[in-house]
Input
Amino acid sequence: MTAPDVPSFPTSVLAVARLSGLRLMRGKKLRLAVVATLLVLFAVVASRYLGDGVDPAVATREGTEWGFFRLLLFLVPFLFNSGAIAEEVEARTFSLLAARPVSRPAIVFGKLMAGAAFSLLVIVPGLLLLHVACFATEPSAMFEQFPGTLRVIGAATLLTLFYSTVCAFWGALLPEAAGIVSALYLSVVEFCFAWTPGFFRFISMNYLAQQIAGFPKRGFLLDSIPDLSAPIAIGVLVSATVLFAALGALVVGLSEYRFASA
Amino acid sequence: MSPVQKPADSDVYVRAVRLTKWYGKVTALSDLSLHLEPGIWGLLGPNGSGKTTFLSLVAGQLKPSLGEVQVAGERPFANPNVLRRIGLCPEADALYDELTGLELVSALAELSGYPRAQARERAAQALDEFGLTSAMERKSGGYSRGMRQRVKLAQAIVHDPDVLLLDEPLTGTDPTSRAVILESVKRRASEGAIVLFSTHVLPEIEALTDRVLLIARGQLVAKGEVHEIRELLEEHPHHVRVECDRPRELAAALMQVAGIVGVHFPGDSAAVFQTRDPDATYAAVCRVAVEGAFDVHSLTSPDASLEALFHYLVERSAHMAGTGSDAAVGSALPSPFAGAAKTSAAAGESSAP
Output
């Protein structure tokens, strides 16, 4: 018997993350995400400098809210995570991983780690670039407004992690329909509910992240929407992320994924 | 790879007890019981017979619907303690095409518990063992089918498993690759590993081992030696179908040929002969057709493959079970396997459902 001992959980997670990261690096998704981010940046910067007397702080906030929180933060985690488990199952490469002495949760968390890291690798520099580009002509304001941008980056990071786990979860639960189910969840629960009145709006983590970022409320019947403090919003967002990650690990841990057919 | 010395009295074994697996209404594996000791075991069966399901159950990728499977005393499903001792070469032609062969096997070796540098070193050795040294830095998406097969084998052996599960490992390989693969498999078995080698081609098994498991329709219909299967093939009456203008006259002329044991006429223009000597029957048909000026349209043997033997064995075992003879004590095996059944029964397990 010369097979090595079972690797520890952190070692397994890191090994899976490294493998997944290498694959993401070589694939087309990274390029697609970078191109989408550059297009958003280009559009915001163009509106900032081509418009008449546009306030850089307003341009930054609007660009962040519409370009990132209502577009890229849906798209980028979806790109990197909806296929994290599903594509492996569909391509039947998951059996290569499942045959190794690593726990199924380690596979899930490793893939999540890689997908979330790549999402943040695109989103965070994108937000920083947007800030720098919008304030390029006003260096002092650039520094004054930087704490606000850091707050936005924090909210975006939390939301990115949440969307990564959501997409990975749906991909693990319904590998054959991962893309469509993840997209439906994000568009209906996350996007649409962010506009609803009253408590319904709290169903959308996107709305909570916007509150953490300090964006103004938008939509209908604004008076019906209770105020929510940032710490509570952070707590809810983190809890929801942990919940979906745990559910994803549970699903993968119990699934057979039809490795064989009759 | 560096030579692996496993103790002769290796504690590894594979045990299945009334193992059953179904997918919805489809029963893929039914009531299979066996006990496998180190060595090479050919897993023989037609497509769709349940071979891959059985291997997936042993590899811990599927959960039994009923019964249980154990590897070295533990259930394998999602069990890292067991999985570290198992190497799986899946049937599916599925690799990470964006990675090089070396990256892929290294990553999987890391997942088996090797530190990064050692994983890379072992991956290089494993790929070298299968003749992929010059191609290991190329992306696997550009590999030929045979090369992909060898990469799958390399990742299966990179961690020196005690149980090596090979699902149709020779698919798409050329003769040179086959020789390399078979040599590697033999060496691992000689070092004390259990090798389960699935195929539907009898000669592939014959080149490796004389111990086979025959699976058909999800049932273990036989467990024994290859020569016993050969004998069964000879014992099993073959069918030869002749389509011609006067089948009854042809049959009358051929009934004197040694080996022909029966004939029937599925239509006005065909005769199907049952024979124990197909070669002599083919020769006789040709000779009589020329002498009698028959207009022969076709001469076929619908059951010249192992498929027919599997069906024969399944039907025969079902018949024996119905008679209440040997089947009553759990040996519904055809006679050549009775000995194996007794041996297995003595070891405390049933060889056939």
Observations:
- Chain A has eleven helices and no strands.
- The two ends of chain A are 33 Å apart (CA to CA).
- The longest helix of chain A spans residues 104-134.
- Chain A touches chain B through 38 residues (CB under 8 Å).
